[in-house]
Design goal:
Strand order of the largest sheet: 2-1-3-4
Radius of gyration: 20 Å
Helix content: 40-55%
Distance between the termini: 55 Å
Order of helices and strands: EEEEHHHHHHH
CATH class of the largest domain: Mainly Alpha
Number of domains: 2
Structural class: alpha+beta
Number of helices: 7
Number of strands: 4
Largest sheet: 4 strands, antiparallel
Shape: elongated
C-alpha cells in the first residue's frame, strides 16, 4: 500500500487503529506490506509553510486475501465489517459497513446506523444514524424501521416514532408491534 501527497517535501503521518493522525503519529516512509486485509489506515500530510492536510481514510484490501464467497453487492465487505464488529474493531467496522451500505447492502446500513447512534468507532451522530436507518427502512429492512422509530422516541417525537414502529409492525416484525404499543 502506497500513500503520497502532491506537496513537495511533505511528511505523511498515519495511524492504523482508526484514530485521527497527528504530527506525533508515525511517519510513513515506505509502502506498507504487513497490514491485514480490511485494516483501516488514516493519513495526513504536513509540510513547512503549509497547513496540515485533512486526514484521509482508506481500507487496505490485500488482493491475495481470501474473500468470502457471497453473492450480491457488497457481500464480502459486509462480512469483513461484521467480523470487525464482532471483534470490537468499531472504527474499522464503520468504514467497511459504510462501503457495503453505499453498495446497497442494507444489513450493513443497519449496523452502521447502530454504530453512529451509539458513538462506536467514532463520534456519535444521531442525525447520521437516522439517515442510514432511513435508507435501510425505505428498502424494507424492518429492524432499521424499528431502530429509526426508537431514535425518534428518544428525541421525544412520538408521532415519528409511531410511524416507523407501525411500518415495522405492518411488515411482520413483532418487536415493532411491541414498540408501537409502548408509544400509544
Amino acid at each position: 500500500m502506497e500513500i503520497s501527497d502532491a506537496t513537495p517535501n511533505a511528511t505523511i503521518h498515519y495511524t492504523v487503529d482508526g484514530s485521527p493522525p497527528t504530527k506525533d503519529s508515525p511517519i510513513y516512509n515506505h509502502p506498507m506490506t504487513s497490514l491485514p486485509s480490511g485494516a483501516v489506515v488514516r493519513a495526513m500530510a504536513t509540510a513547512d509553510d503549509y497547513t496540515p492536510s485533512a486526514d484521509i481514510t482508506g481500507v487496505y484490501i490485500w488482493s491475495g486475501a481470501a474473500q468470502p464467497a457471497v453473492s450480491g453487492s457488497g457481500g464480502s465487505t459486509y462480512d469483513q465489517g461484521k467480523s470487525s464488529y464482532d471483534h470490537k474493531q468499531y472504527a474499522q467496522a464503520r468504514t467497511l459497513f459504510g462501503r457495503a451500505c453505499d453498495g446497497g447492502e442494507m444489513r450493513a446500513c443497519n449496523y452502521l446506523g447502530y454504530l453512529y447512534a451509539q458513538g462506536l468507532g467514532g463520534p456519535q451522530s444521531v442525525q447520521t444514524a437516522r439517515e442510514v436507518y432511513q435508507k435501510a427502512c425505505d428498502k424494507g429492512t424492518l429492524s432499521s424501521c424499528a431502530s429509526l422509530g426508537s431514535l425518534y422516541q428518544d428525541a421525544g417525537n412520538s408521532e415519528e416514532a409511531r410511524k416507523y414502529f407501525q411500518k415495522a409492525c405492518n411488515g411482520g416484525l413483532a418487536a415493532g408491534c411491541d414498540l408501537l404499543r409502548g408509544v400509544q
